[in-house]
Amino acid sequence: MTLEAYLARYGGSAEISLDSLLIEQTRAVLSGRGPEGPISVELQGVSECEVRLPEAARAVLSSHRDDPLLWDYGPRSTLFGNAPLPDPPRFFHEFHELVRGQFRLERDPLRYLNWQGNFMEWRDRVVSRTYLLLTAPAPIAEAASQLLDDQ
Question: Which among 11, 19, 47, 126 counts the fewest CB atoms within 10 Å?
Answer without folding.
Answer: 19
